[in-house]
Amino acid sequence: MEGHSHKHSQHQGHDEHAGHDNPKHGHTGHDHHRMMIADFKKRFWISLIITVPILILSPMIQGFFGFEWVFPGSTYIIFILASIMFFYGGWPFLKGMAGELKNAAPGMMTLIAVAISVAYFYSVAVVFGLSGKMFFWELATLIVIMLLGHWIEMKSVLGASRALELLVSMMPAEAHRIQDDQIVDVRLEELQKEDIILIKPGEKVPADGIIIDGESYLNESMLTGESKPVKKSNEDKIIGGSINGNGSLKVKVEHTGKDSYLNKVITLVQEAQKTKSKTQHLADRAAKVLTYVALTAGFGTLAIWIALGFEFSFALERMVTVMVISCPHALGLAIPLVVAISTAISAQNGLLIRNRTAFENSRKISTIVFDKTGTLTQGDFGVIRYESVTENHTSEEVIRLASALEQSSEHPIAVGVVKKVNELKIKIPQVDNFKAITGKGVEANVEGEDVKVVSPGFLKEKSITIPEEAYGNATETIVFVVINDQLAGYIALADKIRPESLDAIQQFKKNNIKVMMATGDNEVVAKTVSDGLGLDGYYAEVLPHQKVEIVKELQDKGEFVAMTGDGVNDAPALAQADVGIAVGSGTDVAAETADIILVNSNPHDILNLILFGKATYKKMIQNLTWATAYNAFAIPLAAGVLFSAGFVLSPAVGAVFMSLSTIIVAINAQLLKRQIRKNV
Fold this sequence. Notes:
It is a single chain. Helices cover 52% and strands 17% of the residues. By secondary structure, it is of the alpha+beta class. It has three domains: 2-167 and 276-346 and 614-679, no CATH class; 174-263, Calcium-transporting ATPase, cytoplasmic transduction domain A, CATH 2.70.150.10; 378-497, 3-Layer(aba) Sandwich (Calcium-transporting ATPase, cytoplasmic domain N). Helix 19 (523-533) links the parallel strand 18 and strand 19 (537-539). The longest helix is centred in the C-terminal third of the chain and has 37 residues, at 603-639. The radius of gyration is 34 Å and the shape is elongated.
């Protein structure tokens, strides 16, 4: 990650104040950002109040509105007010210029600081005897407008960052710490490594740890992509942010704070917001070039108008206007704001972006290779049919009695049967004399009847005829229920295709994206899943190292390939793919090699990734186009090319247009939220 941890923009003096790229771990960065917003807001309102008397006392404004109000000392009053304005309202820009020059990267803050300094010191010279006009009113309006522009911009950035905090909300506020056999509720920050905590049924897990007493099913779907609750007991690790099921757990804390899994995810998102893509590098170069163009154009304008014989005050006004209007403010904001918003919203929707370039390149994906059926299917056995073959028991009684035997087993088939019974809200009866039939099933007494749940092999051994209708297709696993030595019914299970997979595949095809599957499963299972979903092709009985060859083969055919994998065994294939996507990556999230990590295993998330990438890239290009075209149009006007036609652009109007450009870029970036949410 370190290799990607660069700034968005070369305007570091600007960043220091606007807080664009200062995300720190936890809430510290957000708190600092909020303080900066409050500071700019306060400076804006105070400066606005001071601007009113400056405008009223300015000779140019009085002349414009056709009144005159001069009294002894009025010039010195406007000088004092303008000085407060310059040093208080203009302080962030002066400080920002110092930061930029220190880093040898003059940028927007330098331009603003030069413009207000030239206007202020020239006007001071006029107050104390130099022949010319005072620019105090333009200085005041420029500072007010610039403060307003920064305030709005910073609020937009904070709005994007706030979405990141929703990840933090997955953690509870308190934990039940066990001290000397007493349970004490403590704040999360007070938890220490090795503390023993109690997690009650239904509660969120407050920290990563190891179970020392109790067992329960934990819902980790929001963290690991595991669709079903995972059974956890002694010595098992649990993740902070997951949700406890029906059991109470005593847990020894392993990781808290920045070492926890969830904080690693948050840090990953913050790092992604700081990484640069090719588009961002382009914006940085454009902004830097524009800074030098603006400075050159500003001083060039001054020299040309003086050479043409115009008054120094007029030439100076043109120079000030050029410098104000050509500040690459909008350009500096065009990309970082889109990055902040897209990364945060993606995280909310289960996409953790580590490689910005790969994220933007996702718009080019022409073929997706799913490495295993766990993404397109549920990843666990589910009951798809259950039938009775006798008049003595209904199909519901068959599965109810079977679930009594299966409730204590962790076998995938048993878990599937119990899950189905719970979905049907059928009460599971108690069992007596439970025993396993080696290699063939289980047996017990339930409600006075002898019940067996067995394999087809057991029926053959006992010469019990298997009804033809029991078998569906080759991907199903069938278990039979025998009651009092008579076949009562059967239950068919399969690793079911996700309900959303078919729709996702259709959407991929609408977007002209081919969908392939590379799986270790046998040919029959692979073909059934492929045919059921309408895939463009599949590779069966594939070993992890063979997936690299599949990706290369597709790339050689000119395809832009996305590969989904678990991020560990599939690392070579993920690295070879144009876009590597880790699915269901679990607690190893910080060590993954993929470009993008899916928190959940839903194929719709990959579709969202592509749509997000397209929408983000489009917004970046829109903002870049607007910011550069605006400056190309505005600088000549500011320099006075239409002077002969009677049009002169004042510095204050220039500041209005410049701030308006920034606000348009900020609003356009915010529209990305609406566009992305439409696609979810």
